[in-house]
Specification:
The longest helix is centred in the N-terminal third of the chain and has 21 residues. It contains 16 helices and 13 strands. Helix 5 packs across helix 7 and helix 13 crosses helix 15. The strands form 2 sheets. It has a 7-stranded parallel beta sheet, sandwiched between helices. Strands 10-9-8-11-12-13 form a 6-stranded parallel beta sheet, with helices on both faces. Helix 5 links the parallel strand 4 and strand 5. The chain has 2 domains: 212 residues, 3-Layer(aba) Sandwich (Rossmann fold); 177 residues, Rossmann fold (3-Layer(aba) Sandwich), CATH 3.40.50.
């Protein structure tokens, strides 16, 4: 157990008031704070999210050993806004360390890790580089940093050089997938002792929230009525973002294939994103919007709507940077006992689904769709999720890392 005097600075460029902050940051820190670690969270908050959800976050951390230091997130102009945020985080970090004297710094992704590196070099505070993914490569492959542009080429080179420094000077590195660890050990950390200080912690799920046993028949019937879904309809369900990496056109094409075999299939899309991309793509494919239900969905509502599904879907572009990705939606689907239609070559998804035996691998170029045999054991699927993707399991690994550092 950590000494009560061990204060940890946690830096995140994602806000606690973002959906991701509530699903992938707070659950870990809340559990770790019970082990007497005192956390100070420095996060960049988007103004509208902060306005709407500030009170919720304050209520969640009330009475815990977590102190929150929100900072405004700047979006424009591109690149310069990120540099401004890094500068402001460095300044705030120096002020906080002077006041609280941190034992360690935990950095979620690249920009916070640059701040952690600054604190390490300035004050000797060791830092965790919690990579989350190959961020610089994601920016290029996602089109945010087009390499035809001279400025973005320089930006990419800068962050790839910085990536090497972060990996070599971090006290510990955390990645989401075994594929990412293998790539690092064969590449940037080849023959480097630091290659042994890499832990794999995939995106986890709150299995108490995502639990179909907590949802009654009446609740599900009300949800079906609200969405205009009949009890005899078969539901293909998708949860999450619909842009950049998420192959919504291919997912709709897979749905076309399902409907050819059985017209009772409907597609339920749970997203907070603008639905226009879905509508436009559906029209091109000749799909009726009567068969597609798009529902804005907060995290607390997600289990109820997922429980209406018969088959979940997750198609993600299988590019290099996605070898380091662990889709949160996959853990959530499995925790709800849902089989999953998925595409190959994304992180450890192939290996996970082989072990779980709850998936339908789909060739997406071109789409190969047919009537799926949904002969899966929902209880076994959920048990697999509970054994492999619980927050508690991630907490154990993070606790060991912090214990070594403090």
């Amino acid at each position: 157990m950590a000494n009560k005097k061990n204060k940890i600075l946690y830096i995140s460029y994602d806000g606690l008031t973002d959906p991701l902050g509530q699903s992938q940051i707070l659950p870990y820190l809340l559990e770790l704070s019970k082990l007497d670690y005192r956390f100070h969270i420095l996060s960049c908050e988007k103004p509208q999210n902060f306005k709407e959800h500030k009170g919720t976050i304050e209520d969640i951390i009330l009475g815990t050993s977590i102190t929150w230091h929100p900072q405004k997130y700047h979006k424009y102009p591109p690149v310069l806004s990120a540099l401004l945020d890094i500068f402001l985080m460095k300044r705030k970090t120096a002020m906080l360390h002077k006041r609280f004297s941190f034992s360690a710094c935990w950095c979620r992704s690249y920009l916070p890790a640059i701040v952690g590196l600054f604190l390490w070099r300035k004050s000797g505070v060791p830092f965790i580089f919690d990579m989350r993914g190959f961020w610089a490569d994601e920016r290029v492959e996602g089109g945010s940093w087009p390499q035809s542009n001279f400025v973005f080429r320089l930006v990419y080179r800068y962050f790839k050089t910085t990536e090497k420094q972060l990996l070599k000077e971090a006290a510990h590195v955390v990645v989401l997938t075994s594929k990412a660890k293998e790539i690092l050990q064969k590449g940037l950390l080849h023959n480097n002792p630091q290659s042994e200080s890499i832990s794999i912690i995939p995106c986890c799920v709150d299995t108490s929230l995502f639990n179909p046993a907590h949802l009654g028949i009446q609740e599900r019937n009300i949800a079906r009525k609200l969405l205009g879904i009949n009890s005899e309809d078969k539901i293909l369900v998708y949860a999450g973002s619909v842009g950049t990496w998420y192959m919504i056109s291919e997912m709709l094409q897979y749905f076309v294939g399902l409907q050819k075999f059985d017209a009772s299939w409907k597609f339920l899309v749970l997203t907070m994103d603008n639905p226009q991309q879905i509508v436009d793509s559906a029209k091109i494919k000749g799909l009726s919007m009567d068969d597609i239900v798009i529902r804005p969905c907060k995290r607390a509502e997600m289990p109820l709507y997922l429980s209406l599904g018969h088959l979940a879907i997750s198609f993600i572009q299988p590019v290099f940077s996605k070898q380091a990705s662990s889709p949160t939606k996959l853990a959530e689907y499995l925790a709800m006992g849902l089989p999953v239609a998925y595409n190959a070559n994304v992180g450890d998804v192939d290996d996970i689904m082989d072990l779980c035996q709850a998936g339908i691998k789909v060739e997406v170029d071109p789409i190969a769709a047919g009537q799926p045999e949904l002969m899966f054991d929902s209880n076994a699927i959920r048990e697999f999720a509970c054994n492999n993707f619980t927050v508690e399991k991630g907490v154990k690994v993070y606790s060991l890392i912090l214990k070594e550092m403090c």
